[in-house]
Known about the structure:
Layout: E1 4-10, H1 15-23, E2 26-33, E3 49-51, H2 57-70, E4 81-84, H3 90-103, E5 107-114, E6 117-118, E7 127-136, E8 151-156, H4 161-170, E9 175-181, H5 189-197, H6 201-204, E10 214-217, H7 222-239, E11 244-249, H8 253-267, E12 273-282, E13 287-288, E14 292-299
Parallel strand pairs: 1-2, 1-4, 2-3, 4-5, 8-9, 8-11, 9-10, 11-12
Antiparallel strand pairs: 5-14, 6-13, 7-12
Amino acid sequence: MDAYDLFLAAFNLGERTVEIYNQISATEKIWLVHEEYSLTHAELPGGQTFDLGGVDEAAYCKALFDGLIASGKFDVSQTRLCIDITGILRPHLMFMILYLKRLGVRTVDMLYAEPKHYALKEKTPFSTGSIVDVRPVRGFEGSSSIRGGEDFLVIGMGYDDRLLSAVAENKDKAEKHQLFGLPSLRADMYQESVLRSRKAADELGDPNFSETHRSFAPANDPFGTASVLGEIIEPRLAQHASTSLILCPLGTKAQALGFALYYVFEGNPLGARIVFPFSEGYSPKTGTGLARAWLYRVEF
């Protein structure tokens, strides 16, 4: 693996994030701290950290990168940047993609580390506390006025049935299409995801698990996910040109990256928007061990 000038990773209590951080070769390494993980002072890592509480994903990411540029640690045209997306919250990850493109970054490497398995299998909790809002991710608000027709919601299916239910209820009038991670990260994870999603079947309007409202994309492949989103949306628009497109990535971080890439390169001109059910907090450890890591080179 290449040596980098700058490496960013979000700290949590999972072994996989720490193992990747320790193994990566980089001149500068910085841990990103998300207040939503509710880490105690004793749990926080040593070394350089970036922490900014009480702000949304846009303010957090802009402060991060603007500060790195101002300090000379990040030169948009020259710095070899790698970001481990494993622990980064999905809205922050998506805004990072948008902001790096706006800054003029041409290439960024992104890592995703698979767990050996989730701690409590299909019962693993991911979000904690109340769900405080269902809103568009900053920068991904789209323009429903471009089309203004019936809402069509594509949900990247994950384990967290609370988040699934929240977004489905919020968009209760929308026609819903479910995008599952298959092949899954590990052999049992697709079935575990299905078991969790069935708890939200009524809200999803899919009590019979209809084949016509399901698609599949590899859980570890953001580019494949972006391609499948296009395959779902293009025929929909061909049949119903006025459709208002809504996307919601609740699957793996690799798939969330795929949703962001689809939006940046294809979805934005279509007026699509990405929404997310924001929770008070998130579990600081969901998986155990490190199975393998994937490297994605994103070129703008």
